[in-house]
Amino acid sequence: MLKPKTRFIIYNKNTIFEPDYSEERRPRKRARLEDEESDELAGLFRDSQYYDPKLSNACVVLAGDTLFRVKIDVLSKASHKLHAIVDGTELSGDRNPVRLDAEPDEFRALVWALYTSPDEIRSIKNTTHLSRLCSLAKISHAFRCTSQKSLALSALRDALDLPPFETCSSSNLHLLAETAVRCEAPILLDAIVSRWIKRIQRHEVPCVPAIISADALHIHRLSGAACYAHLQEVAEQSVADPDNGVTHLRLDSKLDSPQKLQLLAGYWSLVNYWERFRRSPTRFVCCSHDECANIWERCWGMALGAPKVLQASQVDVSGLIRLVRESLAAHNELKTMNAECRAKALQSLDDASDSLNANLGEHFTKSL
């Protein structure tokens, strides 16, 4: 509970007065400049870490709503582009700052990197540091700070195998992927997407945020894998009405209409794919043994009739192919095939599964 304020103060036996609380103010994290100066600076803040009014040969930089005061020569050495921007700006101030098209967190990360050792930049301690590296990579790319960009992207690549990445949230995964896209780093992006997909498949992160991120960043492979995984969830949660057999698909409300259409298109495409796939055995380079192709065809039909295959969801094509392969591999008649032919026949199923997974994004289209 708040302590009640004193209504009267007894100064001496002849003097009693009411205290004046009108000057009390709540503490604030950052003092707005308009409290001290004119309305011309309304809404701007001085950075608590990188605004030093005592620095010589310094310039004032405005990034977003935040003012920074840093040494001109430090910024000039970062890149030719920054040198051209800050050269000769010693007279800049709060009223006439150097304006940069960057977010405050991004410029703060750049100044941090310029005063920090490379070993410290590479050291990933937690997701906060991960976020700062993303900010550093993006602003370094925008202002062509080659050295800082290289350090940041290298540290992010190394971080993919460290504990902070293994447990980071979907929002942090989006931040990492967005950074790789903006910095035009395809190798880093591929590594991030591969790990994101594995975490989706292990049910460590949800599918829907990945669908939304893939849509926003135009990452085709992530979109296909996330949509496919979400379809399996939808199939499990959608139960047919026992009276009329009607099934209502329960799509996540966070998805917009085009994304829901994308899922429905994928549903139809995958079911149609399985219908065509199961009609004829996969092809393989056969030997000269006449009986091998006949055995493969007979076993194929029996494998498709296995209880596990019949009970599986038709939209889980990857799972269906795996079940068919397991059934065929265990089939006694198939073991009578020439060993080399049997290996090639089973490999044809592995190849079909790999091709399906590599092209999942093609099944989920927004255009009909």
UniProtKB/TrEMBL annotation:
Matches recorded under InterPro entries: SKP1/BTB/POZ_sf
This chain's protein is named BTB domain-containing protein
Which organism is the protein's source? Lentinula raphanica
